[in-house]
Every structure is written in structure tokens, then in C-alpha cells.
Amino acid sequence: MSNIIVVGCGRVGSQLANMLSDNGNNVCVIDKNPATFANLGRNFNGSTVAGVGFDEETLLKAGIKDCDAFAAVTELDNANLMCAEVASKLYHVPHVIARLYNPDHERAYMQLGIDYVCGTSLVAEETFSKVMSGHGAHIDTFGEFEVLRFSLDLSSCKNKRTIRVADLERDHDIRIIAFERSDGSASSIPTPDSILYEGDSVLVCVRHELIGVFSRYMHD
To answer: What are phi and psi of 18, to 5 degrees?
Structure first.
């Protein structure tokens, strides 16, 4: 059982909180408007705290010090960003997710290392999937494989700022599905000879049991 905080109790937040609670997790919901807690329904088994999701006193009441995962899903991008930054940087919550409304901010979220869900349809389901996967790069699961999207980290490769797709695939038994340059200048489906650069956004298919080893290539 994980301890999870959900900030925002609108349609998405209340649905997400119930999904997580029904899955056996200890869930606390934060919202500045106590009236929104009615959205959780009578069968919600978690707790609620009225307050702002980046306020220290509110977060301590919600159990931030023992929090395993944190999802900020209010209707304001700036509020979600602030909540995510506080949970990640100040309280070092292992897994933090922010809802993103404006796709123009997507690259900034990635560069800041903030895991996010963008779009209004099926947001609760996708955030639920990310929380339960246990890692921020998760996109989807296919049997024993997972599809991940992340910013490429080559700091573990001595004096290397680039790596060939074939070398990365061969050494780690993965498949690079697609990549996008860090400056947004180009995106492509790679060939074995394609070169990846530090900071490139990559879409990768990897076996579950290999994620731990391969995670050194994922920016935090």
C-alpha cells in the first residue's frame, strides 16, 4: 500500500483519488475549497485536507513526509507546477506528477524533469497508470514490456554526449521507437545508425525487469 497525495478535487482529481483508493492505497486529497470534497462520494476511503497544495502546513497535515507519490491535478498549470516543485524539491517525494493544460509548456516541464499528463480526456486514467507503474517515464504497458518517454541522460557515459541507436539497443536489449531533438528542431523514427544526443526526448520499449538498469539513461 502506498501513501499518495492528490491536489485538486475537481472531476479529474476526485476520480483519480477514488481509483487509487479502490486499488488499496492510502490517499489524501487536498483542495482549497472544502465543498469540492463532495465530488469524492460516500464510498471514498481516504482523507481530505482543506488548503493550498503548495502550503507547508497543509502538506504536513496531508502526510507529505511519508508520501510515496504526489499528483497535482488542479485546473491551473501554475498551481500544479508549484505543487510539483515543492513536493519534489523540498520534500523529495519519489514520484511527482503534474497535470498540464497548455501544451506550449510541455517542453519546459520536460526540461525541469517534471513528470506530467497533458490533455483533458482520460487524464485520471493516465495519471493512475503513471502512479501505479512506479516511475515517471511510463506511457503504457504491453505484457512484459513497457513504453517509456524521457529525456536522454548520457552523464554515465564517460566523455560522451552522443550515442548510436544500435549501440544503445544492443547493450540494453531495448528498442528505440522514436526520438526528438532537445531543441525541438527535428523528430524521427530512428535507423540503427541514427545518433542520439544528450537531452533528446526518446520513446523506448523495454522489458519490465530491465528498467532498473536502464534508468541511468533517464533524466530525473
So the answer is: -70, -40
- Dump pLDDT digits (tens) for 161-187: 889 999 888 878 889 989 988 777 778
- What 8-state DSSP symbol labels residue 38? G
CATH number at residue 176: 3.30.70.1450
Instruction: State the Cα–Cα distance between residues 5 and 51, nearest whole angstrom.
Output: 13
- Identify any residues that bridge with 196 across adjacent strands, giving them in sequence order: 163
Q: What pTM did the predictor assign?
A: 0.60
- The answer on pLDDT for 137 being more than 60 is no
Q: Which long-range contacts (CB under 8 A, 24 or more apart) does 152-160 make?
A: 152/179, 152/196, 152/197, 152/198, 152/199, 152/200, 152/201, 152/202, 152/217, 152/218, 152/219, 153/198, 153/216, 153/217, 153/218, 153/219, 154/198, 154/217, 155/198, 156/216, 156/217
Provide the β-strand partners of residue 98: 72, 116
Return the closest-CA partner of residue 26 out of 53, 64, 55, 54. 64
* Owning domain of residue 129: 3-134
